[in-house]
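Lay summary. Proteins are chains of building blocks that fold into shapes, and those shapes determine what they do. In this project we predict the shape from the chain. Here is one chain we studied, written as its sequence of building blocks.
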Amino acid sequence: MKLLNTEAKKYTLGIYEKAINAKFDWDTKFRIAKDSGFDFIEISIDENDSRIARLDWNNDQIYQLRAIANKYGMYFNSMCLSANRKLPLGSLDKEVQKKGLQLINKAFVFAKKLGIRIIQLAGYDEYYNESNQETKHYFLENMKTVCNLAQYYSLSIAFESMDTFFMGSLTRILNVVNYLDSPFLGIYPDIGNLTQFAKENFESEIELAKNKIVAFHFKDTLPDKFKCVPFGSGSVDFVSALLAIFKINYFGPYMIEMWSENKKDETESENIQKLKDAKQFFETMYEKALLEYGKNR
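And here is the predicted shape, written in a compact code that computers can read:
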């Protein structure tokens, strides 16, 4: 019997906003994502001024965007909040710290109104300047405020496993998460990034963090390249990674992280095909891992 307002999918699968050509408006972006077979879009609030400006939208603008998502039977499940690279919480400049917290507060309000469930935070105490014990101290102290804000707005926040040593492994992230001790703070592993920092103990890392994992980024990487690596051309063993995920009885979302080249002459159908190819790759890896998992049970 099929119950009303329920789903029977093995998983929900999202696509990163930046995988869709930036020249398209939001209606077209959602149509591309829908026609490619995805369930949701992960919105980006990065250092780009036009994306940061979204945090100053009025209610009409925000709810209009939410209506577009509803039109296509889709939603924003998560936000990649990386704008704090230029306003890091661990900055030695107290004014930068203050502005960084203000940005996060505005992002939380924006997310709440847009119906976003998960805010992915970039785990950088400093990005463009040197990291040291003092910057790490400021980062942790300011994260206490961020956790309180997440609780106030009833939002899940999570650290991504990053492309730098500070939060490159789940063990290191878990140390921070346990220190902050907030029920609203979790971990958002990036399969590609984690492979480069914990390839030999990937499974044990997943097992260790299993009770804090809220979502997974699906991305290929190389030891010296963390972005724009075509699926299948990197060094990520996706079948083994997914096997490790199956073993922790994970039922949360997956999100394919990839980047459009933003070519001016790219057509809607061309963008759709690229997304379909990525989705097909994910599905192939998932089914291979599922078959292997069944054999070992």
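What the prediction tells us: The longest strand covers residues 75-81.
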